[in-house]
Amino acid sequence: MSDTYIIEVSSQAAGIVIRDRGGFRFFAASHRFNVLEGQVFRTAREAERAAMRIVAGELSVAA
Question: For the chain, what are the domain ranges?
Answer without folding.
Answer: 4-56
